[in-house]
Amino acid sequence: MTIVNAGHTHPHAHDQSCHCVACRPLERPCGCFGCQQLVQAPNMMPTDIERQGLQQFLQSLTQQGWLPHEVMLDGAWQHTPSIEQTLEHSNQCSKPIIRVLKDGDKTGVIRFAWGRGNAGLIDDHSASYGLGLAIEQARSALAAPAP
Q1: Which domain of life is it from (predicted)?
Q2: In b/e form, how buried is each residue of 44-73, taking b as 16+ CB within 10 angstroms?
């Protein structure tokens, strides 16, 4: 049976909660034949250092014009128009996915991972509209020693 979902074809049946990489391109595939379903991450929570790192990272992005906009929570985007709300919602996720907004119409997506310290905080991200460069600058600021 072949099913078309989100503009791509699956070689076998899926329910409505498809987790393949074509439906969720920022998710890590498990490598199963044809589908590459989402690997479920262990339920990790951020350390205090990672929470502070995420806050500093978001502050750096905000200074570059990229504003926190939404967090993926329980499969739906939750509006989080401030760093504080973004942090609050991100702490409820084992692998937070945040959507940022610039100039009112440019969006980007960043996936974070807990348990790797600040050096491994950013797991994956989009790079359009200069977000990739902004992320690298924010990473550099995060890695710089405090004055």
Answers
A1: Bacteria
A2: eebeeebeebbebbbebbeebebbbbbbbe
